[in-house]
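Teaching assistant's notes for section 4

Start the section by putting this record on the projector. Ask students to predict, before seeing the second block, whether OFA family MFS transporter will look compact or extended. Collect guesses on the board.
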Amino acid sequence: MVQGLLSPDRIVAPPDWSRWLVPPAALAVHLSIGQVYAWSVFKPPLESSLGLTGTLSALPFQLSIVVLGLSAALLGTMVEKRGPRWAMTMSATCFSAGFLISALGAAIGQYWLVVVGYGLVGGIGLGIGYISPVSTLMKWFPDRPGMATGIAIMGFGGGALIASPWSSSMLQAFGTDRSGIAQAFLVHGLVYAVFMSLGALLVRVPPPGWAPSSPPAQKISKSMVTAADVTANNALRTPQFWLLWIVLCLNVTAGIGILEKASPMITGFFSGTSTPVAAGAAAGFVALLSLTNMAGRFVWSSTSDLVGRKNIYRLYLGGGALLYLGILLFGATGVPVFVLCAMLILSFYGGGFATVPAYLKDLFGTMQVGAIHGRLLTAWSAAGIFGPLIVNAVADAQEAAGATGPDLYSASLYIMIGLLVVGFIANELIRPVDPKFHEPTSGGSR
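Reveal the predicted structure now:
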C-alpha cells in the first residue's frame, strides 16, 4: 500500500495540473531541512547543560553537512529511479527521526545520540531532501530551469530565518537544560514530519511528452546547452563534471568561511577602531547575510536563464575575488563597506548552489541530472571542512602571534582570493560534453 502510494506512476500529473504547484512542494522540504543553518541556536545550551566545548557542540552540524554530500552522491540514482515522492518521504522520515533520536540523547544526557541522530540520520535526510525535487523541477520548467531550482534552493538558504527564532522561542519556553532541549528537539521532529509530508503529497511529475505552452525563450547562445542525455556514471568520466566540482567546491569554500565565522569576524575586524561593532549589531549582520544568501539563490539563478550559466559563474568567482580584495583594501575604513562586500559574497555563495543544477542540465541533460547533482554535492562536503578550517586556523595562528583586528583575517582572505581565481580558471575550461558520452537513445546532441 505504502509502496504503491510512493510509486512514480502514482504521481503523474493530470492534463490540467499547474506546474506552479511543484515549487511549493519543493519549498516545503527545503524550508524544513534548511533548519541545519540554525544549529548554532542549540550550541550554547548544549555546551552549558552537557559540559561540551565549542568544537564538540559543532560536531552534529559538521557531520550533517558531510553526510548530506555523501548520501546525495550514494543515493542520487535511487532518488531518480523511485521518484520525488519517495525521496521526499524518505527525507522527512530521516530528518524527523534525527530530531527524535537527538531528543532522547538530550533527555538522558548522552551526547553521542545527538551526534548520531542529528548528524548521521538527519544528515541522510538532508542529502535525499536536497536533491529530491531537482530533476522534477527542471522537467516542469525547461524554459526557466535556473529560476525553478532557485525557488526551491532559496528555501534551503531561508530555512534558518524561520528555524532560528522558532528554536529560540521554544528554548525560552521549555528551558535551556537537558529537558528543555529535548522538548525543543521533539517538537522540531514532529512539526517537520508533517510539513515535509505535505510537500511529498503535493509533488507531481509531468506526463510523457509534456511541454510548456510557450516554447523556451533562448536569449543566449545554445553552444553550452545540450539536447542529449548523459548517465550519472558516464558524467563522472567527463572533465566537465570534475571542473564543475572544483568550481562549486571553491565557490562554497569562499562563502562558508565568512558564514561560519560572521559574528566574531565583524567584531574582531573593527575592535580597537573608532567604530566597534557590538554583539547585537553582529547578530544583525548574521541575519543580513542569511537574507542575502537566500535572495541570491533566486535572483542570480534566475538571471542565469538570461545570461547563461558560464557567465553567471564568472560573476560569482571573479566578482567574489574582487570583493574579498575590497575587504582587504577598504574593509577596515568603515563598517558599511565591509558589510556590503560580505553581503554580495554571500549572495554569490547562495547563487552558486542554486545555479549548479541548471548548469548540470545544460551539460548532461535531464535524464539523470538529480543523480549527477547528488554526486557533485560531495564538493559541498569538502568545502564544509575546508572553509571553516582555513578561516579558523589562520585566525587562531594570527592571534597566537599577537595579531589583532583585520590582521587576524588578512591571510585567510588572500587564500580565498586565490581559491576563487582557481575556480574562475576551472569555469573557463568547461566546454560542451563530448558526444561519445551521450546516450544513443536520446537522439544525440543538436
